[in-house]
Amino acid sequence: MEATVRWTGLSGMSFLAETGSGHAVLMDGAPDGGGRNLAPRPMEMVLLGTGGCTAYDVVLILRKSKQDVRGCDVRLQAERAETEPKVFTQIHFHFTVRGRNLKPNLVERAIKLSHEKYCSASIMLEKTATITHSYEIIDDLSLPSEHEAAE
C-alpha cells in the first residue's frame, strides 16, 4: 500500500493526499494551527477510515451470514489526549444496521468479529484507545426482500 501527501503551498496548512489506488483527498489544519478549515483534519481522516473499515466488515459478515442487510451507519465519538502526542484515548462506535428480520446475535457477532479480528484500523487504535461499541437494528419490513426485489 502506498500514499503520497503534498503540502499545497506556502500559505495555510492544506495537504493533498493521493492513494496508491489513484484517489485524492484534501486535508487541512485547524485555523488556530495555521489551517483554513477547508477540509477534514488528518486525525479526522484516521477516524473516518476506521469507521469505513469496520462498516465494511460488518456488512460483509452479515451478508455471508445470509442476513438481509440494507444499511449500516457507524457514528464514531472519540476523545484524544490533551498533551502531545494527542492520540485517541477513547472511541465509541454506534452502529445502526437496517434490513429485514436481522438477527441481533448475528449483528453483535459481526461487530465483535470486526473489532477483534478483521478491522486493522480499530485493532491498531486499540493500542492507545479504549474502544466500545453499541448498536441498534432497524427492521424495515416496508423494504422488499432481496428475493422480492429480484422478481
TrEMBL record:
SUPFAM superfamilies from the UniProt entry: OsmC-like
InterPro entries cross-referenced by the UniProt entry: KH_dom-like_a/b, OsmC/Ohr_fam, OsmC/Ohrsf
Residues annotated as signal peptide: none
Domain of life: Bacteria
Protein name per Swiss-Prot or TrEMBL: OsmC family protein
Organism: Undibacterium oligocarboniphilum
